[in-house]
Amino acid sequence: MSEALQALPFAGILLSFAILPGTMPRFWHRRIEWIIGTWIVLGFAGQALVLGLGGAVRALCEVTVAAFLPFITLLLALYALGGGIAFKGGPWGRPGGNLLLLLLGTLLASVMGTIGASLLLIHPLLAANANRPEKRHLVLAFIILVGNCGGALSPLGDPPLLVGFLRGVPFFWPTVHLVLPLIVLVVPVLLLCYGVDAYLFRREPRPPVERFSIRGGLNIGLLALLVLVMPVEGFWHPGNVNVFSLSMPGEQLAVMLFEIVCIVISEIFTPRAIRTQNRFAWGAMREINILFFGVFATIPPIFLLLKNAQLAPDPAVWFWVSGIASAVLDAAPTYLVFFEAAGGHAKELVSGAAALLTAIAAGSVFFGPITYLGNAPNLMIREIAARRGVRMPGFFEYAGVMVLIMTPIYVLISWLFF
């Protein structure tokens, strides 16, 4: 069975997510398990033809244990903790305040991760602008800056950079090599968002100024602990642990257990009033869990195709190809594929000008906002915004807007640095 045919189930999941929520929303929301499950079964059948039934079962189990469970556990932990922190008042809700919040989120993303920063700040942004008739521009800028590109300066910020760190890339390497490309990206996005926000704000009634307050100290503490625990995977290696006859690094299992403990503590002790203020609901994660499991289950043939591709040794080519791949695939495994395709030796890739690794890292991180599937926070921000009454664009409309906004910036980054 050809690799192209094996890639069809993944393409089917992408098209289903792109088309059905907009054209058949009730059918999609009620039957998402069956829709995604059908593509997973087809992908499994294709794997069985190549690997045999036993090999296909083992491959699916390995993807679930080694890739999906660590990913979704972190997502759920950050969702629970972020939804247990409530802001009230402050300068947000006005163009200057919104600009300040976006800048703050961009900086926090490299410290506490794009997911953590997104879930911490999306609620106060939406709450402060709740009475404004148009706020989609704020959500789109938030996805670009806080949900994706702001995490470019450390392995804590974005999963692709954490993958590089775990493969031997120095901790502060992204800080040194990606700070200038990040500035080139952030400045025009902030200016564009501020311009649109100020134009719209002039025609709207002025919101009252409220005194700033923050609630949810327990979740803030747990979030800080989680940020400190996550890098443990790069330093502590106690050996592998067998999970359902599959091998998992002990440090990964320990971090997952800690994340589960954080979820339980947050659920038990977070006051209901905070959850209500943030309109928190676990149901919002249902479709995200199902969709990403389908992505993880059907994505291996795509990575095989990328790994076998022969790319020219031009950093600009690697920037664009890794970026475009990251826009429709999960960014972390995409980074790993290109990292290995470039030689897979961290000491060699970070030496000298390190242009090739910089191109791979920049492409994997900066192209994340192009589609809803480009990075995990994108879908979460979309779901939270939709629950608060924001009419978010569909898959193709969103991608079209992002391409228009980001392509000139990518061209400029490519020209200046690669």
Briefly, what is this?
With 418 residues, the protein is mostly helical. Helices cover 72% and strands 3% of the residues. It has a two-stranded antiparallel sheet with strand order 1-2.
Characterize the structure shown.
This protein has 418 residues and is mainly alpha-helical. 72% of the residues lie in helices and 3% in strands. The protein has helices spanning 3-6, 8-23, 25-82, 95-112, 114-128, 136-145, 159-166, 173-201, 217-229, 232-235, 250-269, 272-277, 286-298, 300-308, 315-328, 331-341, 346-349, 355-366, 376-387, 395-417, and strands spanning 86-88, 213-215, 240-243, 246-249. The protein has a two-stranded antiparallel ribbon. α4 packs parallel to α6 and α7 crosses α16 (331-341). The longest helix has 58 residues, at 25-82.
Show the helix and strand layout:
Elements lengths: L2 H4 L1 H16 L1 H58 L3 E3 L6 H18 L1 H15 L7 H10 L13 H8 L6 H29 L11 E3 L1 H13 L2 H4 L4 E4 L2 E4 H20 L2 H6 L8 H13 L1 H9 L6 H14 L2 H11 L4 H4 L5 H12 L9 H12 L7 H23 L1
Antiparallel strand pairs: 1-2, 3-4
Helix pairs in contact: 2-3, 2-13, 3-5, 3-9, 3-11, 3-13, 4-5, 4-6, 4-8, 5-6, 5-19, 6-8, 7-16, 8-18, 8-20, 9-11, 14-16, 15-16, 15-18, 16-18
Question: Features of this protein?
Answer:
mainly alpha, about 425 residues, two-stranded antiparallel sheet, two-stranded antiparallel ribbon, globular
